[in-house]
Give the backbone structure.
Amino acid sequence: MTTASEGVAAGLRARPPSRRVSSFVQRHVTLRLIALLSLPGLWLVVAYLGSLAAMLIAAFWTTNDFTGAVVHTTTLANFKTLFTEHVYRTVAFRSVSVAVLVTVVDAVLALPMAYYMAKVAGPRLRRILVVAILTPLWASYLVKAYAWRVMLSGDGVVNWALHPFGAHGPGYGLTAVVLTLAYLWLPFMVLPVFAGLERIPDSLLEASADAGARSWQTFRSVVLPLLFPAIVAGSIFTFSLTLGDYITVNVVGGTSQLFANVIYDNITTGGNLPFAAAAAFFPIAIMVGYLVAVRRTGALDNV
C-alpha cells in the first residue's frame, strides 16, 4: 500500500506544472467559476460602472462662463437648472411621451405579426418570416433613418400615395419621429412576442374555443396574460432605445427636440460637459424607475 501511494505521489510530481494547475482548477468548481467571470466582471466594473461613476462626479462640476473650462467645484447648479427651467421639463415630458408612443405602436404591430408567425404560418414560412424580421437589423441605422426622411418629404412616397385621397403626410416633426423609431425598433418587439407565443400551448386555445369563448375573449383572458412578460421584455428595448436616441430626431424631427438631443448638443455645440453629464441621468432615472415598476408586477420573473 505504501509503495502504491508513493508511486501515485511520484506520478503527480512528475506531471508538468500546467497539468497540476489544470487538475487543481478542475477539482474546485468555485475557483473555476471565478476565473471564468473575472474578465467580464472586470470589464463591467471598470468600463461600465466606472464610466457611470465618472459621469456622476462630473455632473456636480460647472464650467467657466468666460473660458468654457471645467471648474472642479462641487455644486448642484446643473440639477437645479434641469428641475427649475420650464424648457427642460417640457423636453423631458415630450421624450417620455414619444418613448411610450413608440412602444405602444410597436406592441400593436408586433402582436398580429408574431401571432401569425407562431400559430398560423407553417414551419418553412415561419423561418422565412423570422429572416424577414431580422434582415432590416443588418442595414445601416442612418440609411433607414434617411430613407424615412426621403419618404416623408414634400414630394416623397407618403404624400404621393395619400394625394389621390386628398390627404398628405405628417412631414417632419414628432409624428415622423414616432413612425421612424417604431420602424427601427419593431424587430426588438416582434421577436420576444413571437418567442412568448411559441411557448403558449395550442391546447389552451382549443380548450378556450371548446368552452365557448370567442376569439377576442380568448386573446384577452388566455393569450394576453401569458404573453405579458414577453411584451414587457420587448418594451424594455423599445422604450430605452427611444429615450437614448438623438439621431432620428435630427433627421426627421424638424424643430423638435428630445432629451437625448439636450445631452448631445451640450457636448458637441455648447461644450458644457458637466451639464450634459447631469442631463444624462434623466434617461437613467426613468429606466431605473420603469424596471422597478415592471419588477413589482412580476413580469421579469417569467421572461
